[in-house]
Amino acid sequence: MSARKRRSNDLKEKTQTSAPCGLKDNVPHQRRNFHFDLWFCLTLQNWILDFGRPIVMIFLPLEWFPLNKPSAGDYFHMAYNVITPFLMLKLIERSPRALPRSAVYLCIITFVMGASIHLVGDSINHRLLLSGYQLHLSVRENPIIKDLKPASLIDSFELLYFYDEQLGHLMWYIPFFIILFIYFTGCFTKAREQKKIPVSGWLLLGPSSLYYWYLVTEGQITELFLLTFLAMVVVVIIKQRKGLSPDSNGLFLFCSFSVTVLLVALWVIYLWSDPVLRNKYPGLIYVPEPWSYYTLHIKQDH
User: Fold this and answer.
1) Number of neighbours of residue 117 by Cβ within 10 angstroms
2) What backbone phi and psi angles, to 5 degrees, belong to 68?
3) Is residue 273 over pLDDT 80?
4) What are φ and ψ of residue 187, in 5° steps?
């Protein structure tokens, strides 16, 4: 009897400790509190380390950061590449439902790699801006690029643009939104008291939505964002047929994305007739970058 009891206790311990990082195969029933600390930290560091990165490079004296050394914005980007995946993992840990660990880990690894590629490309791009590079023009149309000799150097700058604005963004943002979507799928409940956003969540909703607007427009990931939002809508419809609704965290994320869709639409309407930006963004989906608007309409005016 004692040997059988020891084996039973060992089996319980293995079951409880077999899944690291909180992504357990059997998640006990728990009260679903609003994760204000994580949402606040995520929103704050997004605004400071991502949105604030190019701004700090504008205002800090160039003498402090020589062009052959990392700039203040580069250090911001390095911090972002470490803090953001950590916060995303903590968010996944608090999911009330068991989530696929392999998918989460793969997304985090890809996220870090893509953000790191963007770090290098964006660092060089900032130095080009200081030399007169115009963001509202294509690489070959830029005055400091089009007359380079030999002409093959222009191909190298186009490759840099590809790594910075295309490959880097895709490897950065696709796993970012996949992780948020995976988390969202676990944020459903039948309990009525858990379906309300607290006051702290409503206060965070504006800054969070405004940052996602910046992320979508500056990152040129409108299609990816709309697909993610559409997938979230589909999940909500399916879950509601089963009597489930988003809890406070899922509702906060869904409302943030809903407001972001509205902000992106207003941004496009505002710049719909701009001929210069229309020329740079000729695709079916026309969503200009805020920093292209800055170099075209604000920087030149000053």
Assistant:
1) 18
2) -95, 15
3) yes
4) -100, 55
